[in-house]
Amino acid sequence: MEWDVEIDAQGLKCPLPVLRLRQKLAALRLGQVVRLVADDPMAEIDVPHFCAEGGHRLLAQAVEGGASVFFVAKG
After folding, report:
1. Among this protein's residues, is 14 annotated catalytic?
2. Active-site residue among 12, 14, 28, 59?
3. One pLDDT digit (tens) per residue for the chain, 75 residues
């Protein structure tokens, strides 16, 4: 999958991965995609919830090398 911006939030604990995601999405145009990499287990709950509440689209979610990877399109 292609993306416009990447956030490496490894080593950051809740709520920082979502706060970084919110900050990046605010600067993007509708439909642009952020790839977020986070190793905090709470991100698996927080990111989908943030997307649902904020009107963004969670395009994909996977685990790579012990970290969760999320692809989020600005909604």
Report:
1. yes
2. 14
3. 999 999 999 999 999 999 999 999 999 999 999 999 999 999 999 999 999 999 999 999 999 999 999 999 999
